[in-house]
Design brief:
alpha+beta; 593 residues; 37% strand; 42 strands; seven-stranded antiparallel β-sheet
Length: 593
């Protein structure tokens, strides 16, 4: 009787435990990442009344089975259905992650690494990616210091994706640009004095934006097989529109060009010019009836340009005029009302600082030296040619820029400055206010010289044809995204993206051997296998991460309700064992009466 009663007691205990497991499953039917459990029973012990015996050929008696009485039931195991995935729930929260496959997300409680299938994450005040429920930090891999565009799998560490360093993207100076489009020979712009203007927008090393204004003008070709155009630097403007050409030290290089329309210049009436060694002297009488005259001297050397006003023809007691007055007088001598226009005939650099065309080295030249050289190189027309001996033909000038050559047969780009090169450098200073600028290599290879209904479409763009070196301003973080492999990218408002890290996962030889710790967390056990501290890529076994979704519980509610009914009946039946055994004991005791 006692054996039956204790068997019933064991049955009640085990069925109660099974009911506890079922109740826990049902309670967690909506828990994110919960894995259902199942309880399995096994027999407890057996008491042998007699052992089994085999057949006896001597006595010709058959064998006898053992006689055993069971002593109840015990809980064999409570297993976790950890490999069955739960259904997906869409949350549209970019930090919610559903993981597929057999891997687990890795989190840290400040001391130990733990594992979970609950991917409901958020970013805390320190910028760390953490679990929403308890603030445990999500662990992963950091970008490779030697190659920030790649991940370096190493010992997992906290993913501080919104740190101060990640909130902005550093600026970068523009180092490359290109000019593309069509230069139409019949375009009024390229044939005008100002040329076809182009804006090259670029950045310095601090991320400030600037605009270099360039002008394309038609010039005389270097030979009969090319059409040539100059690309000249007009000025550089900052973001407010202020002219900062001088402060930035912007300069292409001093390049001689031939004028398309050869300009004959004759000394104005009242002016006479004589050559005196390396100098030219222009004598001018404002009033032909008086001896008062001005002598303008253009020296091919350090003397520069000067002017002295004499009261009479003795050339004594003269009064020196200013350099500005001297330029004005020389300009008027050659028929230019605007001294600046005449000055640009000899050089576009008005400060007197020119690049030596022979060496490309920047040196200090006297502007008058350039003018004297220009006059020397010009075509001096003699009286024997039937033209006024005081007539000069100015057929060239120096520009701050380059010459673009196009093949006359087809209009394809041929080269720069009479050669085959396709790029030139826009140089900047390196000290003071110019220290933040970087030289810009400009590519002209995609330009063409074809008809386009008299419209030139040439334009300048920062960055190379391969989208490199364009420069950028400081970028502010505008968004975050997580890829299917767990890589986290930040997007910035300057068009850049940055790899911030990768969420690592852990995989175990026996995931069912993990120990539940509550709060949707697991820890490794001796039977699950150890975590190596590095982890694996979730895609290594075909798994992936899906942002904006969560893995729900894998509890089968219909199966649990059915199991609850079966468990209730088992508990009920075992209770009857106790009550019947008690009745039988009562009958046994009543035999004495």
């Amino acid at each position: 009787m006692n054996r039956a009663m204790y068997s019933g007691v064991a049955g009640l205990k085990t069925h109660q435990t099974r009911m506890d497991v079922i109740g826990n499953n049902i309670a967690n039917v909506n828990t994110v990442g919960y894995k259902s459990q199942s309880a399995l029973f096994s027999e407890l012990l057996y008491q042998n009344s007699s052992n089994a015996s085999g057949p006896n050929p001597t006595t010709n008696i058959g064998g006898v089975n053992p006689k055993q009485v069971g002593l109840g039931v015990k809980m064999a195991s409570i297993s976790t259905n950890i490999t069955l995935p739960g259904s997906a729930e869409t949350t549209n929260n970019p930090f919610d992650i559903r993981i597929t496959g057999d891997a687990f997300l890795i989190v840290n409680n400040g001391k130990d690494n733990m594992f979970t299938r609950d991917g409901s994450f958020k970013v805390d005040a320190a910028g760390n990616l953490v679990m929403s429920s308890n603030g445990y930090k999500v662990m992963g891999w950091q970008p490779d210091p030697d190659n920030p565009n790649e991940i370096k799998p190493d010992t997992v560490s906290a993913l501080q994706i919104m740190s101060a360093a990640n909130m902005t993207y550093p600026p970068e100076a523009t180092t490359q640009a290109y000019v593309s489009g069509i230069v139409d020979a019949e375009s009024p712009e390229v044939n005008s004095k100002d040329g076809k203007l182009m804006n090259l927008n670029f950045y310095d090393a601090r991320g400030y934006s600037y605009t270099a204004k360039l002008a394309i003008k038609r010039v005389a070709g270097s030979n009969d097989t090319v059409n040539s155009y100059s690309c000249e630097l007009v000025k550089v403007l900052d973001g407010t529109g202020k002219d900062v050409t001088a402060e930035s030290g912007a300069m292409f290089k001093n390049t001689p060009v031939g004028l398309l329309d050869v300009k004959p210049t004759t000394l104005t009436a009242g002016y006479t010019m004589t050559q005196n060694g390396n100098s030219y002297e222009i004598d001018y009488k404002p009033d032909p009836t008086k001896d008062e005259h001005i002598v303008y001297t253009i020296s091919d050397g350090a003397g520069g340009i000067s002017a002295i006003k004499y009261p009479d023809g003795t050339n004594t007691n003269g009064t020196a005029l200013t350099e500005e007055e001297a330029w004005k007088g020389v300009a008027e001598a050659f028929g230019y009302n605007d001294p600046e226009e005449f000055r640009k005939m000899s050089s576009t650099i008005e400060t007197g600082k020119l690049a030596n065309p022979a060496t490309d080295d920047t040196t200090t030249y006297n502007v008058a030296t350039q003018l004297a050289t220009l006059i020397t190189q010009s075509n001096l027309v003699n009286a024997a040619d039937g033209v006024d001996a005081n007539t000069f033909i100015f057929n060239g000038k120096n520009i701050d820029g380059c010459v673009i050559d196009f093949d006359k047969d087809g209009g394809a780009f041929k080269g720069l400055n009479g050669g085959t090169g396709a790029t030139t450098i826009l140089n900047f200073g390196t000290t003071g206010d110019a220290a933040s600028f970087r030289n810009i290599e400009i590519d002209f290879s995609t330009l063409s010289n074809v008809g386009n209904e008299k419209v030139s479409t040439a334009s300048a763009t920062n960055g190379s044809l391969k989208n490199l070196g364009g420069g950028r301003m400081v970028g502010k973080m505008s968004g975050l995204s997580i890829g299917t492999e767990g890589k986290i990218y930040a997007a910035y408002d300057n068009g850049q993206t940055k790899l911030l890290g990768q969420i690592a996962t852990a995989r175990f030889a026996n995931p069912s051997g993990l120990q539940k710790e509550g709060e949707n967390l697991y820890t490794a056990t001796q039977n699950s296998g150890e975590f190596d501290g590095i982890g694996v890529d979730v895609t290594s076994d075909g798994g992936k991460m899906t942002p904006g979704e969560l893995e729900m519980s894998n509890v089968d509610l219909s199966g649990e309700l059915t199991g609850m009914i079966v468990t209730q009946r088992g508990f009920q039946a075992n209770s009857r064992i106790i009550t019947v055994s008690d009745t039988m004991l009562e009958e046994l005791i009543n035999l004495k009466r």
